[in-house]
């Protein structure tokens, strides 16, 4: 038994087979062109990458492996490094200066650990975007042992100079340049355009001693823009890790020298015969007990007190002893060693997180100061 296909229907069936074949071929082609690409696209997905910013300081040159460069600018080179990857780069100076150290900080101003081997630096990219600032040794004749630090990671654009090993030792390794610059910038009111200190760009430690009786206080002098007429006193409390800046420092007037007592010439003394009254007086003087340490130079005692200090003010600053020590160190720098002062009042500035206060000394001098809670520092 069989079926017979009419000639017209046979043609229709053939066309149907051709269309079906074309559809199958098109589907296979689409699968091979697009479906096969999916594994390759997945393989090309990149892991998270962080930015490594290499600041160009002192005309320095960087060498690093290919494949990391994202962009190169006038002031910095930006590399893109996968998260968790170790990357090494070399820093050289085009002016033949020796690399001293580097400062690597994260976006939130945290110091990042690194390994330094000569001019080669290696870090692990686990801390987000970071910035690298090279520090070269100063080979000039005037400051052979001084470090020139560009605190690019600080909030304020101030350049610190003259900080050497001797000054570093006096701080017992508690000095941190970023904290110092931030505290100074806050004291100079550099956040405001109308600050009278807005022109300051350079801060230099100078070789002038400042003596203090308090072993907790470290004192040094600084000048602004290399101008010796613009001198300030920096006091640092090692216990509280707080800075106090006396921006209006003037050298205290030295005490007048004692008037010399004229002495008798030896031959005149030898030829002088005492009267009976003088002999009796000398005998009485010799019979008395000598005063204790009569030959020693008398020691001048110093004392200072602040009266009527507001308890709410002390609650705000948080440390009464620190307040007293900073005020005393300031008034002593003015040549005022003994006496007292009366607390006149205070004003809290919540927007800047600081409080200003006034003290009237018993010699009529008015002391105006500011305590910054953000930087835990006093300025006068």
Notes on the protein architecture:
A hairpin with a 4-residue loop joins β18 (354-361) and β19. Among the domains are: 44-134, no CATH class; 303-379. It is built from 8 helices and 20 strands. The strands form 3 sheets. It has an 11-stranded mixed β-sheet, with helices on both faces. It has helices at 7-35, 37-43, 165-170, 177-187, 266-270, 276-287, 311-317, 320-333; strands spanning 49-55, 60-64, 69-72, 76-82, 86-93, 99-106, 115-117, 120-124, 130-136, 147-150, 159-163, 202-205, 217-224, 227-237, 242-246, 303-307, 338-349, 354-361, 366-372, 377-379. With 380 residues, it is α+β, with helices and mostly antiparallel strands. Helices cover 24% and strands 33% of the residues. The chain is elongated. The longest helix has 29 residues, at 7-35.
């Amino acid at each position: 038994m069989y079926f017979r296909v009419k000639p017209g229907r046979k043609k229709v069936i053939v066309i149907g087979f051709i269309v079906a074949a074309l559809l199958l071929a098109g589907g296979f082609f689409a699968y091979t062109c697009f479906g096969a690409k999916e594994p390759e696209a997945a393989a090309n997905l990149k892991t998270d990458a962080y930015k490594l910013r290499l600041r160009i300081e002192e005309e320095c040159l960087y060498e690093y492996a290919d494949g990391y460069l994202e962009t190169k600018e006038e002031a910095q080179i930006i590399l893109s490094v996968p998260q968790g990857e170790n990357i090494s780069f070399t820093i050289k100076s085009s002016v033949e200066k020796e690399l001293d150290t580097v400062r690597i900080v994260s976006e939130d101003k945290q110091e990042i650990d690194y390994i330094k081997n000569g001019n080669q630096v290696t870090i692990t990219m686990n801390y987000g975007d970071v910035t690298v600032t090279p520090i070269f040794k100063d080979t000039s004749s005037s400051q052979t042992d001084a470090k020139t630090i560009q605190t690019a990671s600080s909030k304020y654009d101030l350049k610190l100079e003259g900080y050497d090993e001797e000054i570093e030792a006096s701080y017992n390794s508690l000095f941190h340049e970023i904290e110092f610059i931030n505290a100074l910038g806050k004291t100079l009111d550099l956040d405001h355009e109308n600050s009278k200190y807005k022109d300051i760009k350079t801060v230099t430690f100078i070789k002038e001693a400042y003596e203090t009786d308090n072993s907790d206080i470290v004192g040094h002098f600084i000048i602004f823009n290399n101008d010796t007429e613009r001198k300030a006193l920096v006091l640092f409390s090692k216990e509280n890790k707080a800075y106090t800046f006396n921006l209006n420092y003037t050298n205290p007037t030295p005490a007048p020298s004692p008037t010399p007592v004229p002495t008798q010439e030896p031959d005149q003394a030898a030829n002088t015969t005492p009267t009976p009254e003088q002999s009796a007086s000398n005998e009485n003087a010799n019979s008395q007990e000598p005063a204790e340490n009569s030959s020693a130079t008398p020691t001048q005692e110093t004392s200072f007190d602040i009266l009527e200090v507001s308890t709410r003010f002390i609650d705000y600053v948080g440390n009464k002893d620190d307040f007293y020590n900073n005020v005393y160190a300031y008034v002593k720098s003015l040549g005022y060693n003994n006496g007292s002062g009366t607390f006149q009042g205070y004003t809290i500035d919540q927007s800047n997180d600081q409080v200003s206060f006034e003290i009237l000394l018993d010699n009529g001098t008015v002391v105006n100061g500011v305590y910054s809670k953000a930087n835990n520092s006093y300025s006068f």
